[in-house]
Amino acid sequence: MIESLKEEFKRIYKETPQYIFFAPGRVNLIGEHTDYNGGMALPAAISQGTWLLVSPNNKNKFVLRTLNLDDYAEVLVSPHYRPTNIAWVNYPLGLISRFTQEASGNISGLNMLFSGNIPQGAGLSSSASIEMATALALNRIFQGGLEKIELVKMALEAENNFVGVNCGILDQYAVTFGEKDTALALDCSTVTHRPVPCKLGEYTLLVINTNKSRSLTESKYNERFAQCREALSLLQQESSLQSLCELSPAQFENLQYLIPDPVIARRARHVVEENARVNLAANALNKGDIELLGQLMFDSHASLRELYEVTGRELDLIVELSQRKGVAGARMTGAGFGGSAIALVHQAELKNYCCHLIKAYEKVIGYEPQIFPVKIEGGVRQL
Ligand code: GAF
């Protein structure tokens, strides 16, 4: 794999890459849409990810290419950058822009080649993976001396302010601090985590990609963000809350009357109850109680479907088809609106489950889902 990427780099740039970096994608076991509300999540980094091959050039420009798409960009080194109209380029360029503001030293041109094997639009954080590979590369090559946690925060700012998505820190954090066979009980209010060994016993964690082409995801995501902010400001009339996830479900019951709009109240209820599920799920995983973890996953999906309304027909069908013998739990993972689901399936039932799911899904939706087992691996690194 690496050798063929090096060959491609040589073919394109007529030189050998000086540096190679890898950043994984992630799955989130539970804790969805809690991160930008100061809550908990339980993500893990996966084996699929993005490779970044780089060499400094003396052309005073960043050349940004990917093997996954035809579009590429050449951007002159400058003190200020603007987003381009090539969507994927804005992820590394946002980091270059943010790093330029931060770094006191000289930033000079780079030949960059990205290549990823995370399925596109599958909700497995291909964008955070590109961002963190870029962040580590810039820090290493221009000797930024920044800690990984600072790079995570820079990437988040780049995505919020340069790309324009009001996402939380979940993806960048998981992609950076992921560890082999370990889930991260991530507290987004303190931006710290507790490692939870991912002992699944006789169960396999599967990703089921809906293969649905996603549209308007960013605007719907930002709408949910705004609804949560609205709920918080209404609750702040009677409390000194800083974020929705400071509330327990019981406290939310008592304050709910402050949110007259039923849609906004449903959004807030999801966030508060989902946050409470994360600790239960982390404890269940720690104890190897896969049945309980699975039930919490089903509950999470129901809440994302009924209260947060970010699932859709394809994801709901996958979860419905997963309510069968040998499946401990299933739910959507990531932002939703398409993307992927995850399922915990007993090894003895794996084959039956996959056959049944593929057939039944294809019959209703008109095309097949993509299914693969998750391998939990480490976070961003230089190779
Ligand atoms: C996307 C976002 F990027 C994350 O920050 C998080 O909000 C997630 O959706 C939903 O939990 O992956």
From TrEMBL:
Catalytic activity: alpha-D-galactose + ATP = alpha-D-galactose 1-phosphate + ADP + H(+)
EC numbers, comma separated: 2.7.1.6
All copies of domain GHMP kinase N-terminal, residue ranges: 90-178
InterPro entries named in the record: Galactokinase, Galactokinase_bac, Galactokinase_CS, GalKase_N, GHMP_kinase_C_dom, GHMP_kinase_C_sf, GHMP_kinase_N_dom, GHMP_knse_ATP-bd_CS
Top-level taxon of origin: Bacteria
Cellular component GO terms held in the UniProt record: cytosol
Positions annotated to bind substrate: 32-35, 221
Active site: 171
Location within or outside the cell: Cytoplasm
One Pfam family this sequence matches: GHMP_kinases_C
GO molecular function: ATP binding; galactokinase activity; magnesium ion binding
Family: Belongs to the GHMP kinase family. GalK subfamily.
Protein name: Galactokinase
The gene coding this protein: galK
